[in-house]
Amino acid sequence: MNTFVQSASSSQLERRDRYVARGVSNQNPVVIVRAEGARMWDESGRAYIDFAGGIGVMNVGHNHPEVVAAVKAQAEKLFHTCVHVALNEPYLALAEALCRIAPLSGPKKALLLNSGAEAVENAIKIARSFTGRPAIIAFEGGFHGRTMLGMSLTSKVDPYKVGYGPFVPEVYRMPFPNPYRNPFGPGDLTEQALGFLRHAFETYVDPNQVAAVIVEPVQGEGGFVVPPADFLPKLRDLCRQHGILLVVDEVQTGFGRTGRMFATEYAAGLEPDMVVMAKSMGGGLPISAVVGRADVMDAPKPGGLGGTYGGNPLACAAALKVIEIMERDGLPQRALEIGERSMAFLRGLQERHAMIGDVRGLGAMVAIELVKDRETKEPYPEAVARVSKKCLEYGLITVKAGVYNNVIRLLSPLVISDDELQQGLEILAQAIRETETER
């Protein structure tokens, strides 16, 4: 059972314990009733700076007035048709917009869905349909959702996979080139990772039976692990050699978070076959997409893709406005500024606190990894729990990550002001100081 503190009233705790399934975790035990920009307020009126963004969902900020207006306007006209029954304009407009901004060239098509996991599932379905092959390759440290296939692709046992097997067959997991926790030892990380994959084609799975490789350009739940710059392009080349599709999971990295509209854009000429999108795409409403090569996307026959709520008109209206705001207001560029400020501050903090083992990130996708000893790099999840609790007490919402739950990730809305960012970083620093002193 979660231990609630701060502003959550006893009546709210009772409701939570009585009616909400135990498996629904809660890191910050407060009840939020209002939010705006990069701030949230609980039921007692206390304000919090948001460094979590609903786990990367609120890149344009909470309750952006233009997104609210777009949803209101759409709600007055049409809530739902189900695209399988009758087309609606927001679905068509968003599909067109996503094909325009997706980081791949040539003819493209889109499929609209409701969640990141649902988009991942459908990308794999499309890959298998197009190639006629069954096998999928994923990476250690990767996270692709909580559905049965999502769990099968995900590389974290507790809590995501404990007690839920057996999992989907023909999923093969490879080491990820993690610069901080190098799984190979001395040498070129990219070459070692791809060498392991080539070896796997001889010992684990016939490459002619592999439909797709799915990879996050920056691992999200895995702890904001940024691979070497040459990894994705060389992975792309290896996939092409064997007729394997490359699926890039941009659920958390997409829509401006890393300093580009999509993190894939950092690798010039990468040309994935499909890109999976969700989270900040809808400004807080549930919507996701798979965008890919037209010939690949057209492989499933009519009726093989979709769902009742996929591409709901309200969520589409929100997503269209999000894209407009992102491009007009230069939010990806703002992500670079946030990232530079955050990384500089945290690296300075790292020099003063031994339990900060690593500071890393790309754009405004920034994280610190806490360890008990810098030499052994033994994970320190207990410290993350204490730091997060102190941050909450001082008015900062944080969220953890990492295979060992020892990473604090920063996912503030990209509209956060410099003052709010600095205040949040100073709260984080105070929580780390106190935690290390108590240690």
From TrEMBL:
Task: Give the InterPro entries listed for this entry.
Answer: 4NH2But_aminotransferase_bac, Aminotrans_3, Aminotrans_3_PPA_site, Class-III_PLP-dep_AT, PyrdxlP-dep_Trfase, PyrdxlP-dep_Trfase_major, PyrdxlP-dep_Trfase_small
Which reaction(s) are listed as its catalytic activity? 4-aminobutanoate + 2-oxoglutarate = succinate semialdehyde + L-glutamate; (S)-3-amino-2-methylpropanoate + 2-oxoglutarate = 2-methyl-3-oxopropanoate + L-glutamate
Which pathway features in its UniProt record?
Amino-acid degradation; 4-aminobutanoate degradation
CDD domains in the record: OAT_like (cd00610)
- Report the top EC class in one word: transferase
- Which keywords annotate this record? Aminotransferase, Pyridoxal phosphate, Transferase
Q: What is this protein called?
A: (S)-3-amino-2-methylpropionate transaminase
Task: Supply the source organism for this entry.
Answer: Alicyclobacillus vulcanalis
